[in-house]
């Protein structure tokens, strides 16, 4: 398998927080969603792999090339969108183009114009007068106009209304129709990831708890509402975590179909990404 990004043992230590030995292989041509509660380290991870914050690692490569040795070339292939625009709000899309056409070798004026038209964005209006949705669409117009191979989004869809979010998810989907394109996206809105992610990376308190394919998660995890007896009957290896409710115990299991074949009358539901996250974060059971 070809990897767009490979990270080995990436560590970043702040006074009250550390990102601990995160290792990830992001397959080329996929959408990888990073989830985790507030302060889990999602932005720190993204900023570290972009060199915005200094971090230690054994390996950080993009398309097999070492990041530090090839930073300038690698950045040509990256488009990064944060939750707020980083451009001077006094600039217009025209001025932004003047700057970026000198920054990116592959800047495509016609493509930029076509995206501005598609998103109904004025060329000569200062972006301070743009709505949040318009600013976000401008970021996408820019990202798609310099032939980026990797799109990195850090909470870029938060604060947008469902209609614009849906448009943006469609844009991301269209971007990944090209198998050379890869997307890494951190989001609180796990239902967005349900729609587009091929893989989910779960960060918890600075550690990577898992990276799994979305399909694997969908097929394997299950939630059972039962009693303590049931909890004791199930194999400990199948239990991810459980949460004591007032009158029952909710159990997250990782071999739903296997358990169902043994306990045929047992009701096992398929959890959402958010529920899986909740069990790992709040449930009882040693993790890692
Ligand atoms: N420059 C910094 N100096 C000190 N601590 C920092 C710095 N940047 C981030 N942190 C700390 O690192 C931890 C992880 O923050 P980070 O923003 O990476 O989490 P996150 O998962 O992106 O959170 P959120 O979902 O709330 O955006 C937090 O405890 C934060 O206070």
TrEMBL record:
<dbReference type="Pfam" id="PF00005">
    <property type="entry name" value="ABC_tran"/>
</dbReference>
<dbReference type="InterPro" id="IPR027417">
    <property type="entry name" value="P-loop_NTPase"/>
</dbReference>
<keyword id="KW-0813">Transport</keyword>
<protein>
    <submittedName>
        <fullName>ABC transporter</fullName>
    </submittedName>
</protein>
<dbReference type="GO" id="GO:0005524">
    <property type="term" value="F:ATP binding"/>
</dbReference>
<dbReference type="InterPro" id="IPR051782">
    <property type="entry name" value="ABC_Transporter_VariousFunc"/>
</dbReference>
<keyword id="KW-0067">ATP-binding</keyword>
<feature type="domain" description="ABC transporter">
    <location>
        <begin position="5"/>
        <end position="230"/>
    </location>
</feature>
<dbReference type="InterPro" id="IPR003439">
    <property type="entry name" value="ABC_transporter-like_ATP-bd"/>
</dbReference>
<dbReference type="GO" id="GO:0016887">
    <property type="term" value="F:ATP hydrolysis activity"/>
</dbReference>
<keyword id="KW-0547">Nucleotide-binding</keyword>
<dbReference type="InterPro" id="IPR003593">
    <property type="entry name" value="AAA+_ATPase"/>
</dbReference>
